[in-house]
């Protein structure tokens, strides 16, 4: 399975993945998922929001145990964020069948669409729509960098954008959702306590969001405009990036400007507009709001000195997620007391947790690198992840 997925959407120059929602690479990933489903004689379902499901047992029976993740990527993402969960789900199911386990509940594997939000700027679109956390009008207004709207992109990929919307009936059929994911930090690799821990269980997801900062100045000639006559938004932007780092550090939070757009983007022109996207995360919502507020204030104050107008738009927000304690304890027990750790990364599991008992398994990442082609996990650890997931599915669905 890993070999089949490896070439899909990989940029041969960077070796990073560019599997964006509703593109040709996404279509190929989806075809792979459907083929894996059919090869195992599972029942294939495509839901109204473009999420794919593979069912063992009756999809309508209720109290289903669902596992899975996503196949899309960030720009130049790694191979594991998302696909490890989907591949491990199929492998864990194979393992259960090989053992002759008899599920007494329906089991399903899901591939949620557009988890990373790389193309339309909003993460977890497939699960948010399903859970009623994103309404149809807002989804229809999403646009990519080329101005293509989400409905246009869906239509071009052969899906019906009019069908999207909440799917409470589908969620009501799920008794538990477990997402396996590569760890996106090094907590499991911290072997200072001498434990060999390839797998952990998630406790919580930090609240996080995305804010667009528009710095409006005045485009002008780089060679003839006196410094005192300039209204250069690049200066305000640069100072805001530094302020963000400082505010985050003092608050024990995270703040990152990882995406920027400049107009007119010429070497010999002072920029007229700089657009920077802030991703910020913190252990609690109060801290997050305070950090973002301080960054905004710093931007506005600096803008006044630079003659630059600053506008801030919140593009997305995900509240803190505390995973269901009993399910989390049940998993940790089934796996013999593995570490329980929080994460700063967003996941479909976080979205679903508002409607369904949800848990996550993390697989050790020796470098902690993620959202980069350097993301990696050892084969033995991946297999330990599959074994753990099989154990969990058996514990949840076979008794
Ligand atoms: C998703 O991976 C996110 O945390 O941004
Ligand atoms: Mn990710
Ligand atoms: Mn992910």
UniProtKB/TrEMBL annotation:
<protein>
    <submittedName>
        <fullName>N-carbamoyl-L-amino acid hydrolase</fullName>
    </submittedName>
</protein>
<dbReference type="InterPro" id="IPR002933">
    <property type="entry name" value="Peptidase_M20"/>
</dbReference>
<dbReference type="InterPro" id="IPR036264">
    <property type="entry name" value="Bact_exopeptidase_dim_dom"/>
</dbReference>
<keyword id="KW-0378">Hydrolase</keyword>
<dbReference type="Pfam" id="PF01546">
    <property type="entry name" value="Peptidase_M20"/>
</dbReference>
<comment type="similarity">
    <text>Belongs to the peptidase M20 family.</text>
</comment>
<feature type="binding site">
    <location>
        <position position="81"/>
    </location>
    <ligand>
        <name>Zn(2+) 2</name>
    </ligand>
</feature>
<keyword id="KW-0479">Metal-binding</keyword>
<feature type="binding site">
    <location>
        <position position="371"/>
    </location>
    <ligand>
        <name>Zn(2+) 2</name>
    </ligand>
</feature>
<keyword id="KW-0862">Zinc</keyword>
<dbReference type="GO" id="GO:0016813">
    <property type="term" value="F:hydrolase activity, acting on carbon-nitrogen (but not peptide) bonds, in linear amidines"/>
</dbReference>
<feature type="binding site">
    <location>
        <position position="281"/>
    </location>
    <ligand>
        <name>allantoate</name>
    </ligand>
</feature>
<feature type="binding site">
    <location>
        <position position="210"/>
    </location>
    <ligand>
        <name>allantoate</name>
    </ligand>
</feature>
<feature type="binding site">
    <location>
        <position position="70"/>
    </location>
    <ligand>
        <name>Zn(2+) 1</name>
    </ligand>
</feature>
<feature type="binding site">
    <location>
        <position position="268"/>
    </location>
    <ligand>
        <name>allantoate</name>
    </ligand>
</feature>
<dbReference type="GO" id="GO:0046872">
    <property type="term" value="F:metal ion binding"/>
</dbReference>
<feature type="binding site">
    <location>
        <position position="181"/>
    </location>
    <ligand>
        <name>Zn(2+) 1</name>
    </ligand>
</feature>
<dbReference type="InterPro" id="IPR010158">
    <property type="entry name" value="Amidase_Cbmase"/>
</dbReference>
<feature type="binding site">
    <location>
        <position position="116"/>
    </location>
    <ligand>
        <name>Zn(2+) 2</name>
    </ligand>
</feature>
<feature type="binding site">
    <location>
        <position position="81"/>
    </location>
    <ligand>
        <name>Zn(2+) 1</name>
    </ligand>
</feature>
């Amino acid at each position: 399975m890993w070999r089949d997925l490896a070439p899909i959407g990989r940029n041969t120059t960077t070796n990073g993945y560019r599997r964006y929602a509703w593109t040709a690479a996404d279509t190929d990933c989806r075809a792979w998922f459907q083929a894996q489903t059919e090869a195992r004689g599972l029942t294939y379902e495509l839901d109204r929001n473009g999420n794919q499901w593979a069912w063992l047992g009756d999809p309508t029976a209720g109290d289903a145990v669902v596992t899975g993740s996503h196949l899309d990527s960030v720009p130049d993402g790694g191979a594991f964020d998302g696909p490890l969960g989907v591949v491990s789900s199929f492998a864990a199911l194979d393992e259960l069948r090989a053992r002759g386990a008899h599920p007494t509940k329906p089991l399903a594997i899901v591939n949620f669409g557009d988890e990373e939000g790389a193309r339309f700027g909003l993460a977890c679109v497939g699960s948010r729509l399903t859970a009623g956390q994103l309404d149809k009008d807002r989804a229809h207004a999403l646009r990519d960098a080329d101005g293509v709207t989400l409905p246009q992109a869906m239509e071009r990929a052969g899906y019906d954008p009019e069908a999207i919307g909440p799917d409470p009936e589908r969620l009501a059929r799920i008794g538990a959702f477990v997402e396996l994911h590569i760890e996106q930090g090094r907590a499991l690799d911290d072997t200072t306590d001498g434990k060999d821990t390839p797998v952990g269980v998630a406790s919580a997801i930090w609240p996080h969001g995305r804010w667009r900062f528009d710095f409006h100045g005045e485009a002008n000639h780089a060679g003839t405009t006196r410094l005192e006559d300039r209204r250069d938004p690049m200066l305000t932007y640069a100072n805001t990036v530094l302020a963000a780092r400082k505010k985050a550090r003092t608050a024990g939070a995270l703040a990152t400007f990882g995406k920027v757009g400049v107009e007119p983007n010429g070497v010999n022109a002072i920029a007229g507009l700089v657009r920077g996207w802030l991703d910020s995360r913190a252990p609690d919502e109060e801290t997050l709001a305070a950090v973002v507020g301080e960054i905004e204030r710093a931007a506005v104050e600096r803008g006044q000195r630079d003659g630059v107008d600053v506008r801030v738009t919140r593009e997305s927000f995900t509240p803190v997620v505390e995973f269901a304690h009993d399910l989390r304890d049940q998993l940790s027990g089934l796996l013999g007391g593995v570490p329980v750790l929080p994460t700063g990364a967003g996941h479909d599991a976080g979205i679903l947790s508002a409607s369904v008992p949800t848990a996550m398994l993390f697989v050790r990442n020796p470098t902690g690198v993620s959202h980069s082609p350097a993301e990696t996990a050892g084969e033995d650890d991946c297999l330990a992840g599959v074994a753990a997931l099989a154990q969990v599915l058996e514990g949840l669905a076979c008794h």
